[in-house]
Specification:
binds zinc ion; Rossmann fold; four-stranded parallel beta sheet; alpha/beta; binds adenosine monophosphate; 506 residues; four-stranded antiparallel beta sheet
Length: 506
């Protein structure tokens, strides 16, 4: 069997991957800061490392891979939203409103990444919140690690801050990004502060003002720096050493450089292989709000771009190359997926996982995948297989469909779910969706509808006819029609049910 090869940013070379423990292959990927919806660029590392995760599970077995991806929930932008909500009169303490903002962002993140077919992180194949640690739940471990770094002479406390002393590890600092401390000082926008011994020294702990969240520590009430969060969480969940550490190339310096410095100086072996995806652009330009080309994953999904199309476009560029999201690529991806989906969906029996006790893998495609995740070549290979399928007998066609099944699973492209998005929708589908929506929201909508109906009954009793009529109209506007019967009002969800309109009702 071909050996998996991965490009290690640390050694700047493609290496044969040899796990520390083949029974427990461990990977850490820097996750999102949960202050708002994920933008399209944020989806790139998720999809790249999702494919790697799938390949590792394929090679070592699903129960022998651990994948941890954190949520950064200590952040000024989260605090700002919470402060604004508090000022607008929302009930709850600032801490509760901060937690609520992170919680809602995490729910969105899961929904969006699920729609792209990304598997949830897991510990030995078991999906659990532990595999997606929140920084705020690891403050004790961060404080312990910072204390240890001070004891070992790699960090110092000054004016309520604790800083990592880069001069205490001159031999190692800068190796990942390939720069010396002096180069970095010359090139970087470093924050010069009177309490820093060296301008490159970075924050491990900083004081919090009274209006911001803070935790008590030996250095006063404060909060951790961003870099120590990942070092502490990775150590707690993956141990002294682990196999792979991933993230976007924008994190290579300073975030990953600083993670390495902290963890190595604390005496941990830390990650063996460092992997970085290149950045995503839109129509050749950096995605930015000022250029008007900034959009979230949800924006695309809401416009009707299927998650599988987004994934296909992302995987058609090698992860170490900058990738360009273009309308043309989106259209082409959709066309290709439609062809492929027809091939497999003509024969529903062959698309069902239960029919594949022994997955059949195309060795050519598998080799591409194991060559530092050459997903671009795998997609091309699948196109070749598709063409072959067109020219062979039905039996051969079935065999190819089987190959497709395994490859789409390895790439995480769900052709069945894509096919669903392509089917012409009937009015029955829409009604079903609306009803499903109600059920899926665990009765949330049903509860709200019932509350509004009760309010209307109360309004009628109080002879507030205008209010009663307005409630009926509001509900009708959201697609909920009321009929008064002898047994009281009953409601029906109509095909044009609009959950957002219902949600907007007071
Ligand atoms: P953040 O929430 O900004 O910390 O980013 C979460 C992840 O998205 C990190 O791994 C970043 O490197 C990655 N990322 C952010 N912007 C882009 C982009 N334009 N292209 C690719 N990856 C990105
Ligand atoms: Zn990180």
């Amino acid at each position: 069997m071909t050996t998996l090869k991965l490009y290690n940013t640390k050694t700047r070379s493609k290496e044969d991957f040899a796990p520390i423990d083949a029974n427990d292959v461990r990977m850490y990927v820097c996750g999102p800061t949960v202050y708002d919806r994920a933008h399209l660029g944020n989806a790139r590392p998720v999809l790249v490392f999702d494919v790697l995760y799938r390949v590792l599970r394929h090679v070592y077995g699903a129960d022998h891979v651990t994948y941890v991806r954190n949520f950064t929930d200590v952040d000024d932008r989260i605090n700002e939203t919470a402060q604004k909500r508090k000022a607008a009169g929302e009930p709850g303490t600032l801490e509760e409103l901060i937690r609520a903002r992170s919680d809602e962002t995490i729910v969105w993140y899961h929904a969006d990444m699920d729609a792209l077919g990304a598997l949830r992180p897991s510990i030995n194949g078991e999906v659990s919140p532990k595999a997606e640690p929140r920084a705020t739940e690891y403050i004790d471990q961060m404080i312990a690690m910072i204390s240890d770094l001070i004891d070992k002479g790699h960090a110092y406390a000054a004016e309520g801050h604790v800083l990592f002393a880069v001069d205490s590890w001159k031999e190692g600092y800068g190796k990942l990004s390939g720069r010396s401390v002096d180069d970095m000082i010359a090139g970087a926008r470093v924050e010069v502060a009177p309490y820093k011994r060296n301008p490159m020294d970075f924050v491990l702990w900083k004081p919090s003002t009274d209006d911001l969240p803070g935790w008590s520590s030996p250095w006063g009430r404060g909060r951790p720096g961003w870099h120590i969060e990942c070092s502490a969480m990775a150590h707690d969940l993956l141990g002294e050493t682990f196999d792979i550490h991933g993230g976007g190339i924008d994190l290579q310096f300073p975030h990953h450089e600083n993670e390495i410095a902290q963890s190595t100086c604390a005496g941990h072996g830390f990650a063996k292989v460092w992997m970085h995806n290149e950045m995503l652009q839109v129509e050749g330009k950096k995605m930015s709000k000022s250029l008007g080309n900034f959009f979230t994953v949800r924006d695309l999904l809401d416009q009707g771009v299927p998650g599988e199309v987004i994934r296909f476009v992302m995987l058609s560029t090698h992860y170490r190359k900058p990738m360009d999201w273009t309308e043309k690529k989106r259209e082409e991806a959709e066309k290709t997926l439609r062809k492929w989906a027809m091939l497999v969906n003509d024969r529903p029996a062959v698309t069902r996982a239960s029919n594949f006790p022994e997955p059949v893998v195309d060795s050519v495609a598998e080799d591409y995948l194991k060559d530092d995740l050459n997903t671009h070549a795998v997609l091309q290979r699948m196109n070749e297989l598709y063409k072959e399928a067109q020219s062979v007998t039905n039996a051969g066609n079935l065999a190819l469909a089987k190959l497709f099944h395994t490859l789409t699973e390895l790439l995480g492209i769900d052709l069945e779910s894509f096919w669903e998005t392509q089917r012409p929708r009937t009015i029955d589908d829409v009604v079903l969706d609306a009803k499903l929506n109600v059920v899926l929201n665990e009765g949330l909508y049903a509860k709200k509808i019932q509350r509004l109906i009760d309010e209307r009954i109360a309004a009628k009793r109080a002879k507030q006819w205008e209010l009663a009529d307005r409630i009926r109209e509001d509900l009708a506007n959201a697609g909920v029609s009321l009929t008064d019967t002898a047994d009281g009002p009953v409601y029906e969800i109509s095909p044009d049910f609009d959950a957002s309109k219902l949600e907007a009702l007071k």
